[in-house]
Design goal:
Structural class: alpha+beta
CATH superfamily of the largest domain: Transferase(Phosphotransferase) domain 1
Oligomer: single chain
Strand content: 5-15%
CATH topology of the largest domain: Transferase(Phosphotransferase), domain 1
Radius of gyration: 19 Å
Number of domains: 2
Helix content: 40-55%
Strand order of the largest sheet: 1-2-3
Number of helices: 12
Largest sheet: 3 strands, antiparallel
């Protein structure tokens, strides 16, 4: 946010809390001059170590670098919470959601940024209006990379969305975001994740093996094209995993009117309500 004054409060009116972390709180704010809304991350710098300051500078640098319609500046709430409040939700709607997420990731990857923490909590809406754009938020774990070069950048992410290569402590890069997109798409279609176990060691073993399936009856009404895209995203070998640009070109995404099912998925909505409730309990 560009400011003509060094005093933030002279230019922005701080509103309600949107979220919080260990050392920070995110609040909605309104630019007084234009009325434009933003999400401001307010950080208690007294608690930060020198390493934390480095991470903060990296996050700020990445946020300044990325200017895209699907990279979040403000929130109208979580995407997953909005879905369960809708009167109608179909496979075609899931296709539109993942398209916007993929567009933001493709842009990040084009600019050599890897998000590393794709999950429902970081998929927000631009406003509370119907059909509001999906925004990718929270670049606190994002890193800058050199093209398609892979290296060990450290263990980072959220358990159910971690890729096999991260869990194996192998060199990794942009494909980790695509794996997380595959997990998110699976959830968007049936309301529960592809990998799940109360025991984290067993969960990680599932992920490293790519051990997931499409149980009946909930997957019977999902088109083969949707499952094929998930399979291409949840490919254990990152070198064989589909890229964001390639995924955006599959007919299920770019020609959804003809390919994706438009049947209302009430069971998905019901499962997603339970999934959201479990997430909120874990966050607290």
């Amino acid at each position: 946010m560009n400011s003509t004054s060094t005093n933030f409060s002279d230019n922005y009116e701080v509103k309600e809390e949107l979220g919080k972390g260990a050392f920070s709180v995110v609040r909605r704010c309104v630019q007084k001059r234009t009325g434009m809304e933003f999400a401001a991350k307010i950080i208690n710098t007294k608690k930060l170590s020198a390493r934390d300051f480095q991470k903060l500078e990296r996050e700020a640098r990445i946020c300044r670098k990325l200017q895209h319609p699907n990279i979040g500046k403000v929130t109208g709430g979580e995407l997953f919470e909005d879905i369960v409040a809708r009167e109608f939700y179909s496979e075609a709607d899931a296709s539109h959601c993942i398209q916007q997420i993929l567009e933001s990731i493709a842009y990040c990857h084009l600019n050599n940024v890897v998000h590393r923490d794709l999950k429902p909590e970081n998929l927000l809406l631009a406003s509370k209006a119907k059909g509001a754009a999906v925004k990718l938020a929270d670049f606190g774990l994002a890193i800058e990379v050199q093209g398609d070069t892979e290296a060990w950048f450290g263990f980072a992410g959220t358990p159910g969305y971690l890729s096999p290569e991260v869990l194996k402590k192998d060199p990794y890069g942009k494909p980790v975001d695509i794996w997380a997109c595959g997990v998110i798409l699976y959830i968007l279609l049936v309301g529960y994740p592809p990998f799940w176990d109360e025991d984290q060691h067993r969960l990680y073993a599932q992920i490293k093996a790519g051990a997931y399936d499409y149980p009946s009856p909930e997957w019977d009404t999902v088109t083969p094209e949707a499952k094929n895209l998930i399979d291409n995203m949840l490919t254990v070998n990152p070198k064989k995993r589909i890229t964001a640009e390639q995924a955006l070109k599959v007919p299920w995404i770019c020609n959804r009117e003809r390919v994706a099912s438009v049947i209302h998925r009430q069971d998905t909505v019901d499962c997603l309500k339970k999934f959201n409730a479990r997430r909120k309990l874990k966050i607290k």
